[in-house]
Amino acid sequence: MKAAVLKSFGSPLVIEDVPxxxxxxxxxxxxVVATRVLSYANEVFSGERKYLLDLPVIPCGGxxxxxxxxxxxxxxxxxxxxxxxxxxVRSRDDTVSPDITLQGISARxxxxxRLQKYFRDGSFAEQMRLPTENVKRLGEITSAEATxxxxxxxxxxxxxxxxxxxxxxxxxVLVSGATGNFGSAAVSVAxxxxxxxxxxxxRNEKILADLVRRFGPRVRPVKLTGxxxxxxxxxxxxxxxxxxxxxxxxxxxxxxxxxxxxxxxxRPYGRVVxxxxxxxxxxxxxxxxxxxxxxxxxxxxxxxxxxxDAATRLIALVRAGLLRLDEYEAKAFDLDHAxxxxxxxxxxxxxxxxxxxxx
Length: 359
Prior knowledge:
This protein is α/β, with parallel strands linked by helices. It is built from 11 helices and 18 strands. It has helices spanning 41-46, 109-116, 145-149, 152-164, 181-192, 205-215, 228-238, 256-263, 290-295, 310-319, 338-347; strands spanning 2-5, 14-17, 27-36, 63-70, 82-85, 88-90, 100-102, 106-107, 127-131, 135-137, 172-176, 197-202, 219-223, 243-248, 266-274, 299-302, 329-334, 353-358. The strands form 4 sheets. Strands 3, 4, 5, 9, 10, 17 and 18 form a 7-stranded mixed beta sheet that branches. Strand 17, helix 11 (338-347) and strand 18 form a beta-alpha-beta unit. Helix 4 packs across helix 5 (181-192). The protein is globular and about 60 Å long.
């Protein structure tokens, strides 16, 4: 089969023929129809993000495809089913604290690296092999619609954060990083889950206005100034009441003071979700006041990705019409132009932008 292979950090992807994946017990092989290109894929491939990734590798995980082959433990999947491929692969021998690898993207720790060396190759290929439990049925879609369904890969990340925080209908949410690719997805997911109001802070007034245009008065924009105390008060004033949940998805380049300003708007007994990249590349920590966390009974959730059942539940939100995939503007490339797709994703990584490779 044809694939795009990352052979060394800092080098372009090589488009070449590689052996087709061979199915094992507890596995499924998928014909990849469309796969999302991460907006920061160039930073992963260059080595800038310092992700744990065993090379050479067919990079990037997830995507939309059709079932090509199934193992003996699959009782609901059938050949030809349209499916979402979930890249979050968990070890099966420890259900309490499993090792995790993001197939074709990165691993968590030594155990994650061992897992990656088996489920190593991702979706920049005509076929890919996944654990059976990572293949989620979509129902009937068309080949053309597969491009738009790739947006699930972005939407699943904030959905996992809100599930961890037990977000309830009628609550008020603040999305720290609302003007970014994942942050704007968090705004749409929170509203789909029934949030009464989403506070959306940011510096880009054009993007903030666009969020209001898309979702209406339930979104309350806040223009940030860079002054921690002033910004915190402005975010509180924008809220119609106490802020129940703060969701942070800021990238590695953002100052910790910006993140702290948002976090400390949460009400007593409120919840904070940390899913961003702040401090990933070193530097100062958040420096949150111990007494504030303790006396205000603040719950802080560190969340990496989402639980195993999240994809199925998110698909149901889309099918119910509560979450719209047509918000996303998609640009598709073929596999021969994978390097161009990676460059395009980096240059067009804003809200509701989607770069896709269709092998």
